[in-house]
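--- STAGE predict ---
source: upstream dedup step, 1 unique chain passed
mode: sequence only
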Amino acid sequence: MSSAHDQLPPFRSHHCAELRVADVGKTVRLSGWLHRRRDHGGLLFIDLRDHFGLTQLVVMAGSPALGVLEHLRLESVVTVTGEVVARTPETINAALPTGEVEVRVREVVVQSEAAELPMPVATEADYPEDIRLKYRFLDLRRERLHQNIMLRSAVIASLRRRMIASGFTEFQTPILTASSPEGARDFLVPSRLHPGKFYALPQAPQMFKQLLMVAGFDRYFQIAPCFRDEDARADRSPGEFYQLDFEMSFVTQEDVFAAIEPVLAGVFEEFAGFRRATPWDVTKPPFPRIPYAEAMLTYGSDKPDLRNPLLIRDVGSHFRDSGFALFARIVASGGVVRAIPAPGTAGLSRKFFDDMNEWARGEGFAGLGYVTRKGGEFGGPIAKNHGEAAMADLFAALGLGPDDGCFFAAGPEAEAAKLAGMARIRVGEQLGLVEQGAYRFCWIVDFPMYERNAETGRIEFSHNPFSMPQGGLEALETQDPLDILAFQYDIVCNGVELSSGAIRNHRPDIMFKAFAIAGYSEADVEREFGGMLNALRYGAPPHGGSAPGVDRIVMLLADEPNLREVVVFPMNQRAEDLMMGAPSPVSERQLRELSIRVVAPAKG
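--- STAGE serialize ---
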């Protein structure tokens, strides 16, 4: 007759987060990594870890397993067989799902012995990024990062499920395609069969998803890989990233919003409790719509963080002919003065205001003016020169009280708006005004179709050249180009842009006119975008869409400061894969096959 021991699977009967008090007395088999070890003088305790969690092992003096497990390096892989026993009340670990039991080990099989570790696994302590990326397979064993990657998988599954439930169909678009003259720098792939010609990895499936609409598919989506040869930032990976790409036919801008808002709000609500005692609050659809011009004035940014209650105001009119000569001159010369409230600062020393001014200078600006107020009494050079009555009028217009201060950004409009936006963020953080535990969404709408290049004076596209102008062909023919708005929109959450989108220009006549304003001839447009134009000539529906970034969504949900913390195998800041050694040289034979010669960059 076979024993219970003989009937156990070869590697495990349970995973390492599964055993409970109801299993006491069972003979079990577990496999995993040696996570931690505590030697209590002949009594050895080991935390065994697998993908699911931890189980405490206990190895008694005299056990044949003791001599093996007490000398084996951490992160070695073992299979243990033993009996489930209950922990004594004083040793129960309430923080661990398996914390009421342990496994008394009788046998151990070493499946794989670990070499000396280049970095610790059983700790979440910071470690140099180059080591973490070179040994990413070890880094991924650490609990926080492991959870982040599982979150990513769950978020993608949720997005896919919600999009299908909303009537979207998933399609896969080509990875090898043609180089685009617009946008960021392409990754190029040489063609062996066509010497001297190159494919490009897609910066986005933009053209293909529009062609799917022309082909008669009504609602498309894809968890799409995108490739851009651009520098890394905290919220942008070098090389590749993923987005929830979608497109819809016969829709207005509001139809697009109505389709995607429940998907995004639903995903954020579903995972708002990730690693949190209390789930974060999520903006309910419909999300606020903020025109671009209003966003730049009120928030100093087209990516406003609505958790910050501070609102910027233009106060140039208050300083026209003012006793404060600097601001008066700026306004008279066409500049602006923007006010950033600093509520409840009466109890702070003047150092807070001086430090803000020094911070602004450190960011490359001339400085950040300020006015203090305590018990109704104004302080600072601006107030002294502007006058008591004029300051009282200004504060009343701003809705500021007797114990509130105010900062001022002055200069050319673009420069003042940028400083005001940065100061708004910093003041909100310094004063503890930013709402905690919330995801606040908004749409930025009504982007200008064109802008004037400050260096050349030429009219250029300011956002997406393939967007439909508001007012269509008539607007292009009758309005000042700088006054034309486009059906373009960004979705923003907590100051992070998740995506840009647009209602597309589906008519060749409107497209030719739009490009003509930006200095392109019809021949230029035919040469650069002939494939798309050809499709539009055969009956194209009005269509639009967007593409929220999957990496950024997961970064927000995981409350991580950098995309590399939510990507399985990321590159470093220099677009290098330290683990696999990419990019790497290739052989002369491979270069000959591709008809390529490597030319060293010019020195200096």
